[in-house]
């Protein structure tokens, strides 16, 4: 009941926030002095932040109760190439290099392609957030029964021992070395939920090569 109430409240909050955002947009289009424009910007940025909180609440309820999977057979190589395009664009905006290794990919994989993409991109975004500028992230996608193995490695500070024990838990906040005010301890929890619903596994470690975080997703096929 608590999960249902959280989800319902989060949805209900979207309506008044939309009204607030719409009205501040209209106010911003009128003639304002410098002080009034500053106040309007405060309202707008706070409204956007609240919308982020609401999306997080909705994600909490969905991940905790289980996503509804829409399984379909996908062309793995085509899917990976589409992901590569997205990841490469993100890397370029953050001035991070991308190294990608593909081996023995199966022709077809039965997954919920949108949720799996979300799980992978959560890991990618975390890796980019903690990568030093001008470093690289390394992604390997390797097939071989019984799992497709997707590994993302960055060159950042890596996971602490506490992170390795608890980072996949709901609301866990990392220590200062990998903390981010934007993730609310939910990114890896959501990824774990999606991967487990596919019958897979999420593993965390630190790379011996870079010293950075290494996240591995195993999807059975």
> In what range is the share of β-strand residues?
15-25%
Give me the count of strands. Answer: 7
What low-confidence regions span 5 or more consecutive residues with pLDDT below 50? Answer: 176-184
Net shape: globular
Helix and strand content put the structural class at alpha+beta
Which percent range fits the helix content? Answer: 40-55%
Q: How big is the Rg?
A: 20 Å
The largest β sheet comes out as:
5 strands, mixed
Tally of alpha and pi helices: 6
What topology, given as strand order, has the largest sheet?
A: 2-4-5-7-6
Give the SSE string. Answer: HHEHEEHEEHHEE
Task: Report how far apart the termini are.
Answer: 35 Å
Structural description of this entry:
- The chain has 221 residues and is α+β, with helices and mostly antiparallel strands.
- Helix content is 50%, strand content 19%.
- The protein has 6 helices and 7 strands.
- It has helices spanning 2-28, 34-65, 76-93, 113-129, 161-166, 187-197; strands at 72-75, 97-103, 108-111, 136-142, 147-153, 201-206, 213-220.
- A 5-stranded mixed sheet has the order 2-4-5-7-6.
- The longest helix has 32 residues, at 34-65.
- The two termini are 35 Å apart.
- Mean pLDDT is 88; it is low at 176-184.
What is the element layout, followed by pairings?
Elements: H1 2-28, H2 34-65, E1 72-75, H3 76-93, E2 97-103, E3 108-111, H4 113-129, E4 136-142, E5 147-153, H5 161-166, H6 187-197, E6 201-206, E7 213-220
Parallel strand pairs: 2-4
Antiparallel strand pairs: 1-3, 4-5, 5-7, 6-7
